[in-house]
């Protein structure tokens, strides 16, 4: 055989003919002509470009289009698959594609194009921004992500041609992002292939060892499979049921994941085998379940009804694990033909089976709601990395199903809390949530929900999200809404506090606060390098600019003010008056946790650029030590007449540890109209114990009454307010 005959044939007709033959099974001749034109356009654009494997690059878009053809995507999506790299790699413009083909194809290709030519601070930022661009395009048209998943699948199938380090990076990205997206869209067959290909590339040795062990286990289980198959095939007709029985096994990746999560060896992972039974009607699913439970003993806690409660991606099936012959646990899945189509192809089944007039409206609505949630997250998120993090959180593999008080079922990710539940109902409910009732019992917002819980959210108009919520919020919607609120409210607080500081500094100079329309503002903003008035006020509020310096600029820039005001050299002396705080200014004013100042305490404050003022009591040991190091950063602070009446401070009690002592102390504190926020007794077994309390009081006078009430108990030997 000659060398010429041995080389693969990459001529245009050889590449395109098999593809067009496959497409002709469901597309018209006119559509085939359009796709042929797109192929030749891509062929010409990629001429001379090679893949890492040494093949002409055009083989990649053809392979991607063949995968899309398996899902029977429409002509525009198929043309986009052929052209998906021409903008990115070959400098073809979006407008050129729009004119040559149509705007729909151009939009799809643009949604699939990475942001390569824009400069980013890092490769990670570029990838995150490209991913955000693709997902937002997906939110408008799900075909974008279907073509992208086909693109990623072919890249995973051909990883052998790339460097191992790049192969591991691509595999990790596939497991972290693309497999979860495929799962979220219900493409289970694709998920399995993604996971096994990524596992093989990332852990080649582990993959080979597991594959060998699984092959050995298969040989040992032939009798088991044969016996189960015989029993079921005999039992179903006896009840008048026609069903298709097929055996299956867990994927290598799922076995590896279970071994890792549960710290088990391969021999300890018993449920690696399973059967799937496909029947004609929903009622037959439950009849088959009963038949199986008569044949074999069910494993307690291993039954899941995804028909009554479908997964968020539309998946429906009955799952049960039974103790089969020889004591081996076997998982069974029972579903209808319709459910099986959805389970394997998910949202792509809309195109594959549309000729069967299947009603997929619920699945399409669920997919649309998830895609719409991406736009909601985007609207609250400015940073692309943060957006990607929130989307990853939302790509949950499992779900819990909880109920509203009116019985509506809400699907949430595993590990979700009442905060996630509240935001899933309405943003306003999440924003004003204070606590929850779970199954009628009071519960904190960080409680982990389980399927079947009935959840009621308690709200208050005065309540607002707390930064700590991000530690236990699980959904992308909740996390993005919390972050958005905190950013917005902190900026507003900083503007108000910055304005207050500047007004006070100007008063010290006998200068009135200029109106926002005053041209002085524009001049001072320009000199300061600021874009807006609010930017100056935010910087003052956060301690990035000193109010006295900005006030001085007003004095210098206005001759009329300067002549009527005191001498500029007297400014420092004039700026000695106290800054008054209320204790609820948000990010601009932080009450230090080391001494927990309350109204009535004498105060000092440290100005930290970017953090605003950190307020201490003037006798706090930590503050006094820091003040010696940076005396120029400390300013005089006092309490405003209107102050926050719900501040906390800490007490340490030395007590006789008798029965019921904590209850007596709590009763005395409640009788003094105060609230215990936190309680800790580390040496609870000692006769003399130390009790640490955090109590919420109105002011120093109220604290004194609380201490007097506690001292009435003879078993209390000592009370100390903690500072430092």
Automatic annotation (TrEMBL):
<dbReference type="InterPro" id="IPR003607">
    <property type="entry name" value="HD/PDEase_dom"/>
</dbReference>
<dbReference type="InterPro" id="IPR007685">
    <property type="entry name" value="RelA_SpoT"/>
</dbReference>
<feature type="domain" description="ACT">
    <location>
        <begin position="650"/>
        <end position="724"/>
    </location>
</feature>
<dbReference type="GO" id="GO:0015969">
    <property type="term" value="P:guanosine tetraphosphate metabolic process"/>
</dbReference>
<dbReference type="InterPro" id="IPR043519">
    <property type="entry name" value="NT_sf"/>
</dbReference>
<dbReference type="InterPro" id="IPR012675">
    <property type="entry name" value="Beta-grasp_dom_sf"/>
</dbReference>
<comment type="function">
    <text>In eubacteria ppGpp (guanosine 3'-diphosphate 5'-diphosphate) is a mediator of the stringent response that coordinates a variety of cellular activities in response to changes in nutritional abundance.</text>
</comment>
<dbReference type="GO" id="GO:0008893">
    <property type="term" value="F:guanosine-3',5'-bis(diphosphate) 3'-diphosphatase activity"/>
</dbReference>
<dbReference type="GO" id="GO:0015949">
    <property type="term" value="P:nucleobase-containing small molecule interconversion"/>
</dbReference>
<dbReference type="InterPro" id="IPR004811">
    <property type="entry name" value="RelA/Spo_fam"/>
</dbReference>
<dbReference type="Pfam" id="PF13291">
    <property type="entry name" value="ACT_4"/>
</dbReference>
<keyword id="KW-0378">Hydrolase</keyword>
<dbReference type="InterPro" id="IPR004095">
    <property type="entry name" value="TGS"/>
</dbReference>
<dbReference type="Pfam" id="PF13328">
    <property type="entry name" value="HD_4"/>
</dbReference>
<dbReference type="InterPro" id="IPR002912">
    <property type="entry name" value="ACT_dom"/>
</dbReference>
<dbReference type="InterPro" id="IPR045865">
    <property type="entry name" value="ACT-like_dom_sf"/>
</dbReference>
<protein>
    <submittedName>
        <fullName>Bifunctional (P)ppGpp synthetase/guanosine-3',5'-bis(Diphosphate) 3'-pyrophosphohydrolase</fullName>
    </submittedName>
</protein>
<dbReference type="InterPro" id="IPR012676">
    <property type="entry name" value="TGS-like"/>
</dbReference>
<comment type="similarity">
    <text>Belongs to the relA/spoT family.</text>
</comment>
<dbReference type="InterPro" id="IPR033655">
    <property type="entry name" value="TGS_RelA/SpoT"/>
</dbReference>
<dbReference type="GO" id="GO:0042594">
    <property type="term" value="P:response to starvation"/>
</dbReference>
<dbReference type="InterPro" id="IPR006674">
    <property type="entry name" value="HD_domain"/>
</dbReference>
<feature type="domain" description="HD">
    <location>
        <begin position="57"/>
        <end position="156"/>
    </location>
</feature>
<feature type="domain" description="TGS">
    <location>
        <begin position="398"/>
        <end position="459"/>
    </location>
</feature>
<dbReference type="GO" id="GO:0008728">
    <property type="term" value="F:GTP diphosphokinase activity"/>
</dbReference>
<dbReference type="Pfam" id="PF02824">
    <property type="entry name" value="TGS"/>
</dbReference>
<dbReference type="GO" id="GO:0005886">
    <property type="term" value="C:plasma membrane"/>
</dbReference>
<dbReference type="Pfam" id="PF04607">
    <property type="entry name" value="RelA_SpoT"/>
</dbReference>
